[in-house]
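re: ur question from yesterday

yeah so i grabbed the chain u mentioned. its 378 aa long if i counted rite. heres the sequnce exactly as i have it in my notes:
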Amino acid sequence: FYRICSVGIKFVNKIIQYIMMLYCALKVRNMLRENLESKWIDCFEKSFLLSGVSKNNTVAIISETQSRQVLIDLSMHALSRIGAKPIQFNVPTPKLKDVIPVRSTGSCYSFEGYEAVLPALSSCDLIIDCTVEGMLHSKELQTIIKGGGRLLMISNEHPEVLERCMPDKSLTPKVITSLDILKTSKTMKVSSSAGTNLNVDINGAPARAGAGYLTPGEKVAYWPAGLALFFPLKNTVNGKVVLDTGDVNLTFKKYIESPVILTIENDFVTNIEGEGLDANLMRSYYEGWKDPNAYAISHVGWGLNPKARWDALTMYDKQDVNCTELRAFAGNFLISTGANEFAKRYTTCHFDLPMRNCDIKIDDTVIVKSGKLVGPLG
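ran it thru and got these structure tokens back, copy pasting raw so excuse formatting
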């Protein structure tokens, strides 16, 4: 009986091993490959040309040891095709500052302590940012810009995402219109049938908008893009935000499945309500930070890009994407918490929360109605 049981157990273990091998093989087969495809070099070349790169330009590629290598390689090949002079600044990915997992922050701190190289970066004709989290909200970026530098951030995405969301000149009129609206307006009011009722003072708030490439005179751009946003100054954001089913938590890389209600007072989330897992996860994550700036508003805005897909996240594994695409899908209201360098608040906690089916009113003009661009942006 013992021998029969032993043989039976060995047989079952063998079957389990074969099943696991088959599962792993199928999973590898289904993973997106990150080869150096000629079509992706074409995409990068086109992107860099749109940002003004030309022959003999000195272009710095900044990265870290945990960067997605294919993005660095594609950048090198594309710049070489153009005839530019690329130079790589690759630094070790630093030790974690926090025990909390961090994703999609735009607050890379890999270049902290490298102040000596920042003037060299500023003197280049362009900086290609291939760091994992990106430099958008980093202190070092402000130093680079003040030194005359210009930066194009390539989001940490699989190249297929970048191919689908190529920089697009046809978005430029809506980008310009959005910036004009933000420069001349005083208030933003956001509402929705789910219960959102948010008021934001725009006066003096720095604004950004882009189509994924740098126009002459611009200092910062990112790819994928196609959105307009501004960074509210201190004590200018108040109201209630209701994240409804189908809205997106880009930090967690998941769709909202049960409502989450955020109360915002003078720029800070003061209460998180909701009975489902989504609210519990947000409460838990926020509470892990012993940093009050984690709860602050970073930026608000709206998506302009018809090529960006709200449903794209269903098609990719989490390691494939940084979810920048979903910040830009046309007609979304984007609210983000975390770092806001213009309000002198820095933190590595960050939530990007694109919302559907909202109304956005700027002064007396409705620019988004039920999640659709209308009026001057329609």
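noticed a couple things. The first helix runs from residue 2 to 30. also Residues 107 and 138 are 5 Å apart (CA to CA).
anyway ttyl
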